[in-house]
Amino acid sequence: MPYVTQNYYYDAFHGEPVNESDFPSLLERASELVEEMTMYRISSHRMETYGCEIQERIKKAVCAQIEYLDANGGSDMDNGADFQSAGLGKFNFSKASGASGSTEQSIYAPRALRLLAPTGLLYRGGGCYAPYT
């Protein structure tokens, strides 16, 4: 069972337009990436075990990841190809290097990370931490 539907993406999340034929593969890849970023603490078949607010944040994070993937080359963005520059007609795009000289772009949507931050699902440390439920 997918985390979101195309109707949820457009009607509740108000996502940027995505090619209808690309949506299923973007949804699949975005779901995989959100599960990965939460260290597989979530799964679509256990959604009902989370509180309503966490469920909504997970859905929105998947939508944010769909939007991010689509804006940055589609589901192939996760294949490791990272362009330095590209051009088409009069349009040219060049990536600026970061302070360390790295131009590698994160595969995780910054907005998805921000949406999941208050849930505790991104917590990577040890010790005692109790996220809200």
Secondary-structure topology with pairs:
Blueprint (H helix, E strand, L loop, with lengths): L5 H6 L11 H15 L14 H20 L13 E4 L2 E4 L15 H7 L17
Helix pairs in contact: 2-3, 3-4
What does this structure look like?
This protein has a two-stranded antiparallel sheet. The two termini are 22 Å apart. The protein contains four helices and two strands. Helix 3 (52-71) packs antiparallel against helix 4 (110-116). It is mainly alpha-helical. It has one domain.
Describe, in short, the structure shown.
This protein is mainly alpha-helical.
Radius of gyration: 16 Å
The number of helical segments is 4
Strand order of the largest sheet: 1-2
Number of domains: 1
Major sheet summary line: 2 strands, antiparallel
What is the terminal separation in angstroms? Answer: 22 Å
Supply the helix-strand structural class.
mainly alpha
What's the overall average pLDDT, rounded? 84
Strand fraction band? 5-15%
Got a strand count? Answer: 2
Indicate the low-confidence ranges by residue numbers.
none
Helical amount: 25-40%
Q: Helix-strand pattern, N to C?
A: HHHEEH
Query: What's the shape?
Result: globular
